[in-house]
Design a protein that fits this description.
The complex is a heterodimer of chains A (about 650) and B (about 140).
Chain A lengths: L7 E6 L11 H9 L4 E7 L5 H14 L3 E6 L2 H14 L7 E5 L1 H5 L5 H20 L7 E3 L4 E5 L3 H12 L3 E6 L13 E2 L4 E2 H14 L3 E5 L1 E9 L2 E8 L14 H5 L3 E3 L8 E3 L1 E2 L11 E2 L14 H5 L12 E7 L1 E4 L3 E3 L16 E3 H8 L20 E8 L15 H15 L4 E6 L9 H10 L4 E4 L2 E7 L2 E8 L4 E7 L1 E6 L1 E3 L3 H8 L26 E3 L9 H20 L3 E3 L16 H5 L5 E3 L6 E3 L9 H5 L12 H12 L2
Parallel strand pairs in A: 1-2, 1-3, 3-4, 6-7, 6-18, 7-10, 18-29, 20-27, 21-22, 21-27, 22-23
Antiparallel strand pairs in A: 5-30, 8-9, 11-12, 12-17, 13-14, 15-16, 19-28, 24-25, 25-26, 31-32
Chain B lengths: L5 E6 L3 H10 L8 E6 L7 H9 L4 E6 L10 H18 L7 E5 L5 H18 L4 H8 L3
Parallel strand pairs in B: 1-2, 1-3, 3-4
Helix pairs in contact in B: 1-4
The chains are: A alpha/beta (about 650), B alpha/beta (about 140).
């Protein structure tokens, strides 16, 4: 074993009476004085205090100590403190170990003799450990100062803009033909009622013009490899069949295209052609040929659009491309979808024309929507005189649907009802709610305004059934405040559907290897203290991919994620914990067992030498491989099998 | 009364922190256990367990994070599989499988740590001291 001749000092802390009242600290110090390699042993009332630290510092220098044990509180509290003392004295910080004799000693036992005996055994084991500790230096890694943002909704745009304004290059990857996300579909936004298009489009243009942002719309992230600071990303470019540089938006192609399909931007409430511009303010401003709905790229089958395209922007030969990029940090802003109405059979399960979801109603209210902002119901285009709004559709229902609150529905329902009343002043708006959650700046005032100024009727209770009867939609519910059954003959019903994770996002997240919670939302590294980081270093979370959020919260989180990316990029190099598990090549048989055990893909077989090579940056030092290695070639630094055996012996013998 | 020696391997992120919490909450438990902090319960090699028995432990305890909560994604599942396979092997060596215990104890479960420690100490007390040499001879393993 290395360094068995170390000179070790032992410092036993009284912690006032916290330790000393149960553990006989003097006896511990005295008993340990004769232990092999221990050249100095003492006790002191408060080791972590200034005089305590000074005593340790001076003793290291005077006695020429090579390593030390502080027998005190849990290492979680003061390990760092004493490592710094060691550093000041010129020792490597990995030459100090803490013997936890407070949290796992004096505080949990009352038998003084036994607690003292246990403390001595703990000290002995730590002496055994530290006498075999190596000097270690943090592993340094270069940082690739370039970020990728996945998702071009408001959160992705904000994060990209902020990172770019910090002066770093950003790749913004969006799977759809245009950026804008769900926010660009909204009519007006609560609680200020400013028009979503008016505040969103300038941001979209800013992103497209920012010299540091490379906008990749109609692209998808295919795979990610590497590690924090050094990711390699494979990106798939979907063929648009149109050169955005040449397309002048004349719209002739759209006129001649014979294929009519439902328009996603208007939530299927209107139609578009197979060659289309998603919406007039789309960024980039270019038509896209939707190959799934196109009659076929062979000019012999159709080819009408190409014939009329004056600037000759259409290229049927364009093919899918896959290319690689290097980035140092990844912001995941993949957004949300709405829970589909077919989950709610009791509300018609998508089969009643005039029962719409919140986003559909946004399009109906929007000046750029299919009805030009006039509230008309989808079935016959009539202006509805009785509209019922149902909150919590699929939310807060642990038994059948989603257990969580979708957070924004109370506010947008109040907004919907209010906007409806502004458009149809003689109409009736009725809202069914469980509770109204209006926690947010100016939110409750907004809700009050809906009930008082705009005379929206709020009924506390759930709706049990919605069905069509002749040209009316019957809404059966209950008013739980009066206990009365309520029946409303409505012309139109708006369901505040629960927010859910983006459809299909799980495949991407699996590729990124980042964790989600039980509802499929991205999991934070810590729900309170690290809310915009993923546990996997180098990944940051923004917007609704992390859970339901309103726009101000989304924007704040996106800016916070961007600031965190800035933190990472501001470091000259990254430091990585060196207590990893390297391979002793002479012992490695190349069986590869450790490769499959590693959760981080940090180990691979060298094809020539037939031994396992370890990526020091990817290794997080869990030690699963060390336990799995049949030949003892995988040894965790400063917790080798040899150290564990010596510690076990020191604790258990005698 | 027989005072058993119990060796505990505690994962740094959950069970070790749970044991610390028992301390800060001043909960009391039998002083028979000795703790070793490991990065992950999956760091524990069956060899370590055997060696602990050889050095005089009467019982060995391994504490990890709850399934799904592992700091290293899936280490606790590996531990579960390893220990499940290892127990019959212990039996063939003449060591009662009840002498090895695996539990999921989170950083918030100081109370559970105390309960398990007391329970396990009692259980080992009932089993009596492990006389390894005799046990191995009795098992017929040469």
């Amino acid at each position: 074993m290395k360094n068995t001749k170390k000179k070790i000092g032992l410092f036993v802390c009284h912690c006032g009476v916290n330790i000393a009242s149960i553990v006989d600290v003097e006896r511990v110090a005295k008993a340990m004085a004769d232990y092999p390699n221990v050249v100095f042993s003492t006790d002191y009332v408060y080791m972590c205090s200034e005089p305590g630290q000074k005593m340790i510092l001076d003793t290291i220098k005077e006695r020429g100590l090579d390593a030390l044990i502080v027998a005190a509180c849990s290492p979680t509290l003061h390990e760092r403190t004493f490592q710094n003392v060691a550093k000041l004295a010129g020792l490597n910080p990995y030459q100090i170990e803490i013997a936890n004799i407070r949290e796992q000693g004096s505080w949990v036992h009352s038998d003084k003799k036994k607690a003292t005996e246990k403390a001595i055994r703990i000290c002995r084991s730590m002496v055994e450990k530290v006498s075999q500790n190596e000097n270690l230096e943090p592993i340094k890694v270069d940082v690739h100062r370039r970020a990728m943002v996945i998702g071009g909704g408001i959160s992705g745009l904000q994060a990209a803009l902020d990172i770019a304004d910090h002066g770093y290059e950003v790749l913004l990857v969006e799977k759809n033909p245009s950026i804008g996300g769900h926010m660009i579909q909204l009519s007006e936004t609560f609680p200020t009622l400013d028009c979503s298009q008016c505040i969103m489009t300038p941001k979209m243009v800013e992103v497209s013009r920012h010299p540091k942002i490379k906008l990749l719309t109609y692209h998808e992230v295919k795979s990610v490899s590497g590690f924090v600071g050094n990711f390699r990303v494979k990106i798939r470019k979907k063929p648009r069949y149109i050169d955005p540089g040449l397309c002048n938006l004349c719209g002739e192609c759209e006129k001649v295209c014979p294929q009519v399909v439902s328009d996603e931007f208007n939530m299927g409430l209107s139609f578009r052609k197979a060659i289309y511009l998603p919406f007039p303010q789309a960024v980039p401003g270019t038509y896209t040929l939707d190959i799934e709905n196109c009659l076929g790229l062979l000019p012999i089958r159709c080819g009408k659009c190409k014939e009329v395209c004056e600037p000759n922007a259409i290229n049927y030969d364009e093919a899918e491309e896959i290319f690689e990029e290097e980035v140092g940090a990844i912001v995941v802003a993949t957004g949300y979808d709405l829970y589909t109405m077919d989950h709610l059979a009791e509300y018609g399960g998508e089969k009643i024309d005039d029962v719409v979801n919140g986003l559909e109603f946004e399009r109906i209210l929007s000046a750029s929507g299919p009805t030009g902002g006039v509230v008309r119901r989808p079935s016959d285009g009539e202006v509805p005189k009785n509209v019922v709004f149902v909150q919590c559709c699929g939310s807060r229902d642990t038994e059948h649907h989603n257990p969580y609150c979708s957070k924004i529905c109370c506010m947008y329902t109040a907004k919907h009802a209010m906007l409806y009343k502004h458009r149809v002043p003689d109409g009736n708006a009725t809202v069914f709610y469980i509770d109204v959650r209006a926690g947010g700046k100016a939110f409750d005032e907004f809700y009050q305004r809906a009930t008082e100024e705009d005379e929206v009727l709020y009924i506390r209770g759930k709706v049990s059934k919605i069905f069509r009867e002749n040209d009316k939609i019957m809404v059966w519910g209950v008013d739980t405040l009066t206990g009365q059954k309520v029946e409303i003959e409505a012309d139109m019903v708006v369901l505040a559907m629960s927010m859910v994770k983006t459809d299909g996002v799980e495949n991407l997240l699996k590729e990124l290897k980042i964790a989600t919670d039980s509802n499929g939302w991205l999991a934070e590294a810590h729900p309170k203290l690290r809310p915009v980081e993923s546990l996997n270093a180098g990944f940051y979370l923004a917007g609704c991919a992390n859970g339901p959020k309103d726009i101000p919260e989304t924007v704040s989180q996106a800016s916070a994620a961007a600031a965190k990316v800035g933190d990472l990029f501001a470091q000259a190099e990254l430091l990585h914990e060196p207590t990893i598990v390297p391979v002793i090549e002479e012992l490695c048989s190349g069986c590869g067992i450790c490769i499959h055990v590693c959760p981080y893909g940090a180990r691979e077989l060298d094809p020539v030498l037939k031994v396992v090579k370890v990526n020091e940056i990817l290794c997080e030092g869990c030690g699963a491989c060390a336990a799995a290695c049949p030949s003892g070639a995988a040894q965790q630094r400063n917790q080798t099998d040899g150290q564990i055996f010596s510690m076990l012996k020191a604790m258990l013998k005698g | 009364m027989f005072e058993p020696k119990i060796m505990c391997f505690l994962c740094k992120w959950c069970t070790y922190a749970g044991a610390d919490l028992a301390g800060t909450s001043r909960m009391q438990y039998a002083p028979n256990s000795m703790n070793m902090r490991v990065m992950c319960s999956s760091r524990v090699d069956p060899q370590h367990v055997l060696y602990a028995f050889k050095q005089g432990a009467d019982g060995v305890f391994i504490g990890g994070c709850h399934p799904g909560d592992c700091h290293y994604v899936e280490g606790n599942y590996k531990t579960l599989r390893r220990i499940t396979l290892f127990k019959p092997m212990l039996e063939s060596l003449g060591i009662d499988r009840k002498r090895l215990r695996l539990e999921w104890i989170s950083a918030a479960e100081g109370q559970k740590f105390v309960k398990v420690m007391n329970e396990f100490t009692e259980q080992i007390r009932v089993l009596g001291p492990l006389n390894l040499e005799e046990a191995v001879l009795d098992s017929g393993v040469r």
